[in-house]
Amino acid sequence: MSATALFGNYARSNLTFDHGEGVWLITTDGRRFLDCGSGIAVNSCGHSHPHLVKALQDQAAKLWHVSNLHQMPEGERLAQRLTEASFADKVLFVNSGAEAMEAAIKCARRYHYDNSQPDRYQIITFEGAFHGRTLGTIAAGGQEKYLEGFGPKAPGFDQVPSGDLDALKAAIGPQTAALAIEPIQGEGGIREIQPDFLRALRQICDDQGILLIFDEIQTGVGRTGKLFAHEWAGVSPDIMAVAKGIGGGFPLGACLATAETATALAPGTHGTTFGGNPLAMAVGNAVLDVILADGFLEDVQKKGLSFKQKLAGLVDGHPKVLDQVRGMGLMLGLRCVVPAGDYVAAAREAGLLAVPAGDNVVRIMPPLTMTEDEIATALERLEQAAQSVEAKLVEGAAE
User: Fold this and answer.
1) What's the confidence (pLDDT) of residue 1?
2) Would you give the end-to-end CA distance of the chain in angstroms?
3) SS in 3 state form for the chain?
4) pLDDT at 2 over 70
5) Which of 199, 256, 267, 270 is placed for a possible disulfide with 88 were both Cys, Cβ 3.0 to 4.6 Å?
6) pLDDT averaged over every residue in the chain
7) Rounded (10°) angle between helices 372-398 and 296-317
């Protein structure tokens, strides 16, 4: 008989957490772990942030769910705040990153349909990308390991190498509706897309009447030290998918768009039962209270630079384990010489949680509220993990 009634699609650790405090997670048997994964860049304000807890409790005592057939005052407020702080004019609330990307894809295709170009539905993405787990978004990502076994790949997506403008231009045709890209590839291994390349994409889109979609599901809401990572390049998209950190741990995603583009999703063209529900809107507003507070994002930038410099020292000190530090803000990565999973396991033994990614990288993405003292503690535990892996390498060589 199976030990669990859950599906077996997750390779879970043996840890069971009871509660969290800021950057710390505490197991049911009282062990404390420094959370440098943040639920994969989700817990932007840390665990049990009092402002978020109060917002959720207050709303839960009043109203949980109302259909989108009616007015949503807190949703109106959150949308207004997001548009005031971004390129966007309109916001559609959903429940997850994959749903946000699905909305972005549908919006782009419908936009061209409404402009008498129904054959413009093809979307070009970039190798190494990850856009979600639905049938549409795994096709958008184009990675075989996510596509395998789920039947024919959904049509309408092409992939080109990131950074290769010649390949991109060759792939663009009269059927091209949009380009979609992550400013930093998260699942792909904390691989930064150069600002010049993002600016070139904007110019190509403007020249050829193509829409530009940014996937900021992992990079957005302060993770890089700006509210959205594309701000570093000084370029704006037509449509953007956001999730993870925007809910601080509560399921929440959003599709942001310019006014012209957003008209594509008229009544009846798209919908969601739970998207924009009162609980999510209350928490989303509370998250923005924290992230948009004076000096918060500047502080993330400073802490991110400090953390990255310390990680560079860690890499220099352990060349048999680590060989590169990547990323910006508090979206950082350590490329490993040893299997990344080995280093993640060693870090967990040392009391620190991290997340593996593609290209043999370990992601370091703590809550944005992490302090300098906690960064120092993280370095001590990452150092301990590196020493542990080195010791095993020596043992293995001696056998």
Assistant:
1) 39
2) 39
3) CCCCCCCCCCCCCCCCEEEEEECEEEECCCCEEEECCHHHHCCCCCECCHHHHHHHHHHHCCCCCCCCCCCCHHHHHHHHHHHHCCCCCEEEEECCHHHHHHHHHHHHHHHHHHCCCCCCCEEEEECCCCCCCCHHHHHHHCCHHHHCCCCCCCCCEEEECCCCHHHHHHHCCCCEEEEEECCEECCCCCEECCHHHHHHHHHHHHHHCCEEEEECCCCCCCCCCCCCHHHHHCCCCCEEEECHHHHECECCEEEEECHHHHCCCCCCCCCCCCCCCHHHHHHHHHHHHHHCCCCHHHHHHHHHHHHHHHHHHHHHHCCCCEEEEEEECCEEEEEECCCHHHHHHHHHHCCEECEEECCCEEEECCCCCCCHHHHHHHHHHHHHHHHHHHHHHHHHHHC
4) no
5) 256
6) 97
7) 20
Q: What is the mean pLDDT of residues 219-225?
A: 98
pLDDT at res. 397 = 78
Tokens of 345: 């396991």
Contact 241, 178 (CB under 8 A): no
pLDDT tens-digit series, residues 8-24: 999 999 999 999 999 99
Tokens of 340: 């990344």
Percentage of residues in the chain with pLDDT exceeding 70?
Answer: 99
DSSP-derived pairing of the beta strands 331-336 and 352-353: unpaired
Residue 67 CB burial class (10 angstroms; 0-12, 13-18, ≥19): exposed
Residue 55: pLDDT above 70? yes
pLDDT 10s digits, 232-256: 999 999 999 999 999 999 999 999 9
- Other C-beta atoms within 10 Å of 36: how many? 26
pLDDT score at 231:
98
Mean pLDDT along residues 324-346? 98
Up-side HSE of residue 271: CA atoms within 13 Å toward CB?
A: 7
Give pTM, 2 decimals.
Answer: 0.96
Residue in the block written with tokens 């001696």: 398
Alpha-carbon distances, residue 102 vs 50, 138, 304 (angstroms) = 33, 11, 31
